[in-house]
Amino acid sequence: MKKLFWLSTLGLAIAATSLPVVAQTPETQTPETQTPVTPIPETQTPGTQIPPTTPITQDSFGAPRIKHTSTSRTTNYISLYTGSQPLAYVTILPPENIGIGNNITVTDQSGQSINANVTREGEKVRISFAQPVAPGSTLEIALTDLAFGYPYPSKSTFNYELAGGHIGFNREIPYGLAQFQIY
Q: Going by C-beta distance under 8 Å and a sequence separation of 6 or more, which residues neighbour residue 165?
């Protein structure tokens, strides 16, 4: 009986800690957000072939995410995939000892500048777009005018928390941590 109790407690603990944060989704799903289904025959007789599947690109799944980060001496770059819903704003929370200046530029995958308004909510920086960014876009966010607090880091890794406000969702979608290494 003790073993059953401990195993059920362990199972509940694992289940509780591994549940992802789930945003409220809209009532109806558009065809772009559904995964294509390829019918697989119930039985296969010798000599028959299974129909070929269509390759699916990684971006067609629709999950917003941080694609990559890079850094230069004075600028941190974040490449962000917007997902399958239009993006209204992005929030960035820098680490404790880094301050982000007002000089933030946002470009799309073609290199064109995107009109955005930068506001501050305490330590958090909010980048609101004049027009919602189209689904399936990749944004390049350049954070310049960085201010490092005392003590100045010599060799460190810094994590910025990113989240986005998508049209059709009732809350922010967390994208995760954008990680930068300073040498």
A: 87, 88, 89, 90, 91, 172, 173
